[in-house]
Design goal:
Shape: globular
Number of domains: 1
Number of helices: 1
CATH superfamily: Nucleic acid-binding proteins
Number of strands: 8
CATH architecture: Beta Barrel
């Protein structure tokens, strides 16, 4: 069995870029940033950001270009695809992107601490934190031994 599925929730890094294919179908590209926060062995908070290129086709492309703006939160479901081509200098170039099957817009002004997507497209506030309150993450205090994982 094979599975190629990507699900990301993040914020747009730029306004959607729209163009049309020769057939007339609309194509939109968006950039999405996702964050990962964890504590290292010393207990210090660490954070990294990943940037994803997303391609949206058809009717979803039209609504995405119309309603999405830089900084807005978005949930994207799709598949990962890598394209290759020969550059002007003859060197082979690669680009990995997510081809969206579904794009779900986040609430306006979302992306702050504790805000997330809930099933059915509604917004929920995690951990009971209200607007303006910082939401903290409870990390496990015990170390995880890879030998304890059953697979």
């Amino acid at each position: 069995m094979y599975l190629n599925k990507a699900i990301i929730i993040g914020n747009l890094t730029r306004d959607p870029e729209s163009r049309a294919m020769p057939s007339g179908a609309k194509v939109v590209t968006i950039g999405v940033a996702t964050n990962r926060v964890w504590k290292d062995k010393a207990g210090a908070k660490q954070e990294t950001t990943e940037y994803h290129n997303v391609v949206v086709f058809g009717r979803q492309a039209e609504t995405s270009s119309q309603y999405l703006k830089k900084g807005q939160s978005v949930l994207v479901e799709g598949r990962i695809q890598t394209r290759s081509w020969a550059g002007a200098d003859g060197v082979k170039k690669y680009k990995t992107e997510i081809v969206a099957d579904r794009v779900q817009f986040g609430p306006k002004g979302a992306g702050g601490p504790g805000q997330s997507f809930a099933p059915g497209g509604t917004q929920e506030v995690a951990g009971g934190a209200g607007p303006g309150e910082a939401d903290s993450i409870d990390y496990p205090s015990e170390e995880i031994n890879p030998d304890d994982i059953p697979f």
